[in-house]
């Protein structure tokens, strides 16, 4: 999940008690094939931030506010670092020396993990397969993705669906900001997606898992924790703030996650020591020292969001995420409650709005712009993230903008006081 939600005390699994992998996951995504995956919004919309074919308008950030340091999306609890990080210019497919050095750095991080292992309390093994849901609006979901049902549940369709999901279905927490109650029911999330909205990790991966299972894939849900810089990366505890999916397909187990906001763009094979470059960014996998059979996803630091995400191997049902969802969507301490966020990933990078700050993070670095008016803010939600918000009336829009602006001013005051 992404959006800097604050990890809470809803379910902590710790020591004691009794209680799954080749680098080349697939052929690199060819930019020549990207057009089919780009988002096309309804005809007749006046585009400024993104053109009618879904491509980023480079003039939209021509007057970027380079002193705007507000952090962008992730679901960790880390404090926001005042810094500007410019990523190395990494090519999309053929790593140069800078890419190789960055990959070696990620590999070094993987190799230096703690070796301590523990067992997790309170996790009940289940039959792992996610079940199809005949009540879910699968056709509406596929229409949002721009895909037909696969003839067979194969790897090619899985990759196409993952890319389409990252590009077409925005990660967003606007239902929380609107104080509309939601649940972790995948059918509910699928219906919301079919209506033109998105969600955060419990919604995105909840929906995706059910979609894949309904189409014949072997899918498992897992308890996960996204960890920011303030979190002890070697900790063997697990504070639940993320839903993880793994998919067994064509003889391999794949990490499939459209709920982290900015990564990964494509599925990753679960194999110890995996280092994968997707566009300008490099990600890794290692066994998680906190649980035999668990895994640790290592994020690219140039994306300035979170450090890592760990998850347990035990399969769980969606009810296992209900307590975490309740806290993260209602607690005043949760950053999902404190700030509006939306993000959408493409082959080259990520567009993110957090509060009133719009970010573009790609191989050229980080570009930022402060949004000053409600009309511009709602326009960018439509242009960049496909969020036309047809279910939000004028009165609700006014209240939402007031809330977003108040949070922005509070953040500015906190930032000034810290200097």
Brief account:
Helix content is 27%, strand content 17%. A hairpin with a 2-residue loop joins strand 8 and strand 9 (281-287).
Main features:
eight-stranded antiparallel β-sheet, globular, alpha+beta, 15 strands, 419 residues, single chain
Task: Please characterize this protein's 3D structure.
By secondary structure, the protein is α+β, with helices and mostly antiparallel strands. 27% of the residues lie in helices and 17% in strands. It is built from 10 helices and 15 strands. The strands form 3 sheets. Strands 7-6-5-3-11-10-9-8 form an 8-stranded antiparallel sheet, with helices on one face. Helix 2 packs across helix 5 and helix 5 (186-194) packs across helix 6 (201-214). The chain starts with 11 loop residues before the first strand and ends with a helix.
The separation of the N and C termini measures 30 Å
Percent of residues in helices: 25-40%
Task: Give the amount of beta strand, in percent.
Answer: 15-25%
Q: How many separate helices?
A: 10
Spatial extent as radius of gyration: 20 Å
Order of helices and strands: EHHHEHHHEEEEEEEEEHHEEEEHH
Write the layout of secondary structure elements.
Blueprint: E1 12-13, H1 97-111, H2 138-145, H3 155-168, E2 171-172, H4 174-177, H5 186-194, H6 201-214, E3 218-227, E4 238-239, E5 242-249, E6 252-256, E7 268-269, E8 275-278, E9 281-287, E10 295-298, E11 308-311, H7 322-330, H8 335-338, E12 341-345, E13 349-354, E14 357-362, E15 365-370, H9 374-385, H10 394-418
Antiparallel strand pairs: 1-4, 2-12, 3-5, 3-11, 5-6, 6-7, 8-9, 9-10, 10-11, 12-13, 13-14, 14-15
Helix pairs in contact: 2-5, 5-6
């Amino acid at each position: 999940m992404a959006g800097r939600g604050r990890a809470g005390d809803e379910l902590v699994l710790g020591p004691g008690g009794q209680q799954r992998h080749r680098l080349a996951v697939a052929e690199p995504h060819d930019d020549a094939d990207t057009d089919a995956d780009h988002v096309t919004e309804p005809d007749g919309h006046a585009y400024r931030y993104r053109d009618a074919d879904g491509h980023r308008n480079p003039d939209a950030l021509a007057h970027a506010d380079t002193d705007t340091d507000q952090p962008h999306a992730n679901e960790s609890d880390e404090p926001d670092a005042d810094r500007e990080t410019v990523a190395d210019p990494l090519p999309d497919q053929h790593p140069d020396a800078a890419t190789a050095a960055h990959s070696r750095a990620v590999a070094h991080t993987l190799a230096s993990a703690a070796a301590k292992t523990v067992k997790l309390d309170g996790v009940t093994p289940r039959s792992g397969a996610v079940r199809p849901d005949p009540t879910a609006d699968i056709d509406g979901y596929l229409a949002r993705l721009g895909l037909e049902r696969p003839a067979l549940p194969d790897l090619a369709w899985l990759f196409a669906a993952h890319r389409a999901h990252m590009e077409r279905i925005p990660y967003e927490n606007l239902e929380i900001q609107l104080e509309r109650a939601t649940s972790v029911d995948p059918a509910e999330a699928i219906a919301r997606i079919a209506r033109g909205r998105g969600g955060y990790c419990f919604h995105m991966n909840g929906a995706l898992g059910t979609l894949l299972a309904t189409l014949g894939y072997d899918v498992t849900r897992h308890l996960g924790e996204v960890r920011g810089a303030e979190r002890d990366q070697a900790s063997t505890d697990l504070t639940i703030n993320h839903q993880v999916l793994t998919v067994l397909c064509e003889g391999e187990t794949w990490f499939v996650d459209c709920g982290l906001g900015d990564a990964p763009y494509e599925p990753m094979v679960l194999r110890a020591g995996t280092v994968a470059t997707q566009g300008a960014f490099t990600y890794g996998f290692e066994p998680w020292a906190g649980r035999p059979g668990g895994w640790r996803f290592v994020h690219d630091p140039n994306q300035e969001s979170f450090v890592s995400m760990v998850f347990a191997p035990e399969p769980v049902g969606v009810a296992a995420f209900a307590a975490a969802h309740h806290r993260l969507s209602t607690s005043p301490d949760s950053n999902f409650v404190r700030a509006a966020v939306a993000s959408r990933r493409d082959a080259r990078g990520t567009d993110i709005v957090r509060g009133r700050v719009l970010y573009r993070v790609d191989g050229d670095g980080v570009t930022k712009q402060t949004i000053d008016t409600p009309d511009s803010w709602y326009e960018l939600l439509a242009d960049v993230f496909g969020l036309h918000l047809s279910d939000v009336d004028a009165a609700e829009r006014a209240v939402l903008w007031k809330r977003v602006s108040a949070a922005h001013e509070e953040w500015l005051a906190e930032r000034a006081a810290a200097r």
